[in-house]
Amino acid sequence: MFEYFNHGTMRRMVIVFGSMFNDINVQRYDNNGNRIQTLAVPLAYGPKQKFLVRLDTDPNLDREVAISLPRMGFELTGITYDGTRKLNTTRKNTNVSTTDDTVNLSQYTPVPYNLDFVLSIFVKNADDGTQILEQILPYFKPEWNIEVNMISSMNIKMDIPTILNSVSFQDVYDGDYQSRRSIIWDLNFTMKSYFYGPVNTSGVITRSQIDIRPEIALDTPRVERLTLVPGLLANGSPTTDSSLSVDRNQINSGDDFGFAEDIFEFQDGKVFNPVTGQDELP
Q: Which fold has domain 9-78+112-192?
């Protein structure tokens, strides 16, 4: 029933979320207000418990380095279907193949899912935490949109909103005065993403035909035939005159062509153009 395909949507969304917070800095000042240090805050993917374990593995501060603070970590915590953003399931996205002009690509509309993320900020003093928060909170009102290249072969780019749902605070300071202190801020986000199905291929239609009968019955003789073909002059300009156009098999889907409409009549078993007197184009 299911066929293999992989657009890397989940991995792309995780990368996009992390990229929003990879340029956070913390500055330190002396008593006179002079800046003495600027620290880039490291960012890594991983569960919050992983970083807490690293903090707790040096209870007596004997190691030279346990884990450097400040730092940030984030993880994907859940995925839920969002029926409020459901699109018409019979509609398709279409595009022309970049490697073969005679092939059309099609894909059904995507399925909306919400991705829940949590961003944890680990600091050892309150000022570092507030500096990091002030570089994040103003951008979420409560959402921030970022353009994502969803499906490259289909040339689909979408603005994906990321919503800041809540901010919580925790001061971990257990044990004696030599125990390591850590202040933790947890920011919960929801990314409104989409998941796409497989990309299907089909040939490009270069000619359409409609036969007209005086009555609906199939045994009624046909009287006219309407054809529609692409029209392109030899110099590459579009045209609506099929008699001036190059052969339709020489026209690629990426060309700037026009549409040539011709009406043919049925007479004595032949189909001809009453205007030009020419037989129907092959």
A: STM4215-like (3.30.2000)
